[in-house]
Write a structure and sequence with these properties.
Pfam families: SnoaL_2 (PF12680). It comes from Actinocorallia longicatena. It is a single chain. This protein is α+β, with helices and mostly antiparallel strands and about 120 residues long. The chain has a single domain, classed as Roll (Nuclear Transport Factor 2, Chain: A). It is built from 3 helices and 7 strands, in the order ααββαβββββ. It has helices spanning about 1-10, 15-25, 40-55, and strands at about 25-35, 40, 60-65, 70, 75-80, 90-100, 100-110. A hairpin with a 7-residue loop joins strand 5 (about 75-80) and strand 6 (about 90-100). The model has no long low-confidence stretch (mean pLDDT about 95).
């Protein structure tokens, strides 16, 4: 599913201007992102969360952990965060609500986190 691939691409884009442009393309203006460590709204909040994750996990990349399961404007998928081509240090599971071709909400869960 292209929108989910673009969503993960935003998490991997370290150039702030390019990431911002991608977020504005993928997310609804008032979209929300909620996981155990963050609860933000709007592109500014989502961008800040991504920048903080990139700082904490510099050099690691997000990849899909399998196929995206989607229906009725909902998409669920597992993602991995780790070194390029290496074992995932963090594994998560997200559910995205998609309206009018943009992400309205993402609810994230962390399945594996470093100690």
């Amino acid at each position: 599913m292209e929108i989910i691939k673009n969503y993960l691409e935003a998490w991997n884009t370290t150039d702030a201007a390019a990431r911002r442009a991608l977020l504005q393309e993928v997310w609804a203006e008032d979209g929300t992102y909620t996981d155990p460590l963050a609860d933000v709204a709007g592109v500014d909040g989502i961008d800040a969360v991504i920048a903080a994750v990139q700082e904490r996990f510099a050099g690691l990349v997000f990849t899909l952990g399998g196929d995206v399961d989607a229906h009725h404007g909902l998409a669920r998928f597992t993602w991995h965060l780790g070194p390029e081509g290496g074992e995932a240090l963090v594994v998560g599971f997200d559910v995205a609500v998609i309206e009018d071709g943009r992400i309205r909400h993402v609810l994230g869960f962390l399945d594996k986190v470093p100690a």
